[in-house]
Amino acid sequence: MIGQTSLLVIYTGGTIGMVQDPKTGSLKPLSFENLYKYLPVLENFNCQIDFHTFNPLLDSSNMNPSFYVKLATEIEENYENYDGFVVMHGSDTMAYTASALSFMLENLNKPVIFTGSQLPIGMVRTDGRENFINAIEIAIAKEVDTPIVPEVGICFENKLFRGNRTTKLNTENFGAFISANYPLLAEVGVKIKYNRDCILRPNFKRLKVLKELDESIAILKLFPGISKCAVEAILNTCGLKAVILETFGAGNAPTLPWFLDALKEAADRDVIILNVTQCKGGTVEMGKYETSAELSKIGVIGGYDITTESAVTKLMYLLGCRFSTQAVKQLLQTSLRGEMTV
Ligand code: ASP
């Protein structure tokens, strides 16, 4: 149908696509043939909506980089045929998958909107219906024939976030996500109000999909009293290429000699060390306090206000590109997809 907007909905698993079995009461995945039963309103969209269901459907805790590659490939193969994409995904690791996709889909000029829910779509009080419908509306929204949101977003509880800026904050509230360091891309009320100054602009270049992700990374989350043994065990993980150091406040860490020596020894082995704050909001400021100045001397890279989810997937992406260590360090301090404020 020439001129008709088209959308591909990709269902990967998670609570949103489940219904309660009336006999057993347990949750089971919903087949898309039955979707209209729960969402008759979909027929009112002046849009061709097609569905792709992953097999097997995954709880998002079981997702990993090879799943990210499958998802990115699904989008790549259908990229020219659709105006936008909605990904139905479990909320638990949605921030990781959305962040990963934002890096893998270079020159993305169409919306890829993730959504999910806290209650299954088949339940009376579900938040899934609203989330899903909002995501569809955002994924097909255009202005002068150009998508309004040509980037990877997460649509949850009347809010649209930049995917690589989000963190799952709450296991129960319908507002499950936050983006503490970046404004909302849109707010859904009677109208959908797009925050246009904060949305990436399309570059009209050809989509390039990077499908090599390198998992040789680890997270070292500090806590007062962390032992030498625990720190060394992480830094000596076999094949380790990069470690995310989750520090206190504005990027601070103990100044204990054994701790700094362990980091220096890893840095000397060419392990990249990225300093990311444990705080949900705010930025790392290397050198602001004595407790981070020492890290700078060792060669630890400041991650600014990047989330841990985004740092993990950005490192997998950069290492997968096989850049030199120097280039990776430089790109970690550069915002590639609006993932941090430099
Ligand atoms: N455990 C589910 C998942 O992440 C929870 C959800 O869908 O929200 O797949």
Characterization of this structure:
The structure is a single chain. The protein has nine helices and 20 strands. It has 342 residues and is of the alpha/beta class. It folds into two domains: 6-209, L-asparaginase, N-terminal domain (Rossmann fold); 217-332, Rossmann fold (3-Layer(aba) Sandwich). Strands 4-1-5-7-10-11-14-15 form an eight-stranded mixed beta sheet, with helices on both faces. Strand 8 (142-143) and strand 9 (146-147) form a beta hairpin. The longest helix has 14 residues, at 65-78. The chain is globular and about 65 Å long. The termini are far apart. Aspartic acid is lined by residues 13-15, 59-60, 90-92, 116.
Element order, helices and strands?
A: EEEHEHEHEEHEEEEEEEEEEHEHEHEHH
> What's the CATH C level of the largest domain?
Alpha Beta
Number of strands: 20
Associated small molecules: aspartic acid
CATH topology tier name of the largest domain: Rossmann fold
Strand content: 15-25%
Number of helical regions: 9
Spatial arrangement of strands, main beta sheet: 4-1-5-7-10-11-14-15
Rg from Cα: 21 Å
Portion in helices = 25-40%
Sequence stretches where pLDDT stays below 50 over 5 or more residues: none
Bulk shape: globular
Distance between the termini: 45 Å
Average pLDDT number: 94
User: What class do helices, strands and sheet pairing give?
Assistant: alpha/beta
- Under the CATH scheme, the architecture of the largest domain is 3-Layer(aba) Sandwich
Number of domains: 2
| Main sheet summary | 8 strands, mixed
Task: Give the full name of the CATH homologous superfamily of the largest domain.
Answer: L-asparaginase, N-terminal domain
